[in-house]
Amino acid sequence: MTNIESDALTVVAQLRAKPGKEQALHQALTALVAPTSREPGCVTYNLHVDVDDPASFCFYEIWRSRADHAANLQTAHLQDFAARMDDLLDGELRVSLLRHIA
């Protein structure tokens, strides 16, 4: 395992749109992909939607380090999205921070 793999942080973030807010959440999440993908330390930043539930979204992210992910959370585009979450999300944002082991 290379050093980047041992230091890398995998993030799985699950979000659910409020009823009637599916398209608005989809657009807001899609708008995060390009700027986040260009950030230093971002290895992978993929947005997914549940094939059977269009209100359920998931980000699958790989960051070079936990510090790179922490810096991402302070960017203007993430802070702008965070300010809109109460209006768009049904329930809490669920985030898992994972380390690759095999």
TrEMBL record:
Gene3D superfamilies: 3.30.70.100
InterPro entries xrefs: ABM_dom, AI-2_Isomerase_LsrG, Dimeric_a/b-barrel
PROSITE patterns: ABM
Domain ABM span(s) in chain numbering: 9-97
Superkingdom assignment: Bacteria
One MF term in the entry's GO annotations: catalytic activity
Name recorded for this polypeptide: ABM domain-containing protein
Species whose genome carries this gene: Streptomyces katrae
